[in-house]
Amino acid sequence: MESEQSPVLARCVFRPAYETELQLYRAARSKLRLVLLIVLGAACIAYLLSMLIQQALMVLVFRNPIRFWILVACLAAFIALYIWAFFSPSRNAKRKLRRGFELYGDLPTVVTEFYDDGIRLRIGERQSDIRLSYPIIVRCMETRDLILLETKEKQVVQVHKAALEGLDVPGFKALIREKCPKAKIQFTA
Predict the structure, then answer these.
(1) Rounded (5°) CA angle 165-139-161
(2) Cβ contacts of residue 40 below 8 Å, gap of 6+?
(3) For the chain, which has fewer Cβ within 10 Å, the N-terminal or C-terminal residue?
(4) What are phi and psi of 72, to 5 degrees?
(5) pLDDT tens across 143-178, in order?
(6) 149 with 156: CB under 8 angstroms?
(7) 75-97 confidence digits (pLDDT tens)
(8) Which residues contact 162 (CB under 8 A, 6 or more apart)?
């Protein structure tokens, strides 16, 4: 990539924040997995509750509590898994921000520049330089404040809409559609 000689088509300079990281992790989770978790979870909880009531009656009549406590443990484990699945984006966002503080002492400024031949990211004062080509982008998503570009290896480039320079948001979306024709585009309007 000869990014230094070609003009910058678009540029985004921003500092990560909890709200944007939360949007990132919520957008990145699989919708199908979430729907399956809800549907199968509701069915499993209903089944476990009915079995729990049946076993509670058996305990009262026959005084054999082993199956009852196994069902209680299964129900508790399933509810814990359910809670873990729904709160993981929040936990991941907080963890990523803590890592940023640990590595840089403060949240680093991320500079993302878009050229004709690729994307260049510079992170923090040390100017860690990352270069990506457009063909490796496989999925493009949009949240309230961000446009997210996901690579084949699940790396995500964040573009903060309010910090976008050089192009407006519709122009940037058109640029991404042009440069990443094979990517799955999930933009609103």
Answers:
(1) 25
(2) none
(3) C
(4) -65, -45
(5) 888 899 999 888 889 999 988 888 888 999 999 999
(6) yes
(7) 888 888 888 888 888 888 899 88
(8) 14, 145
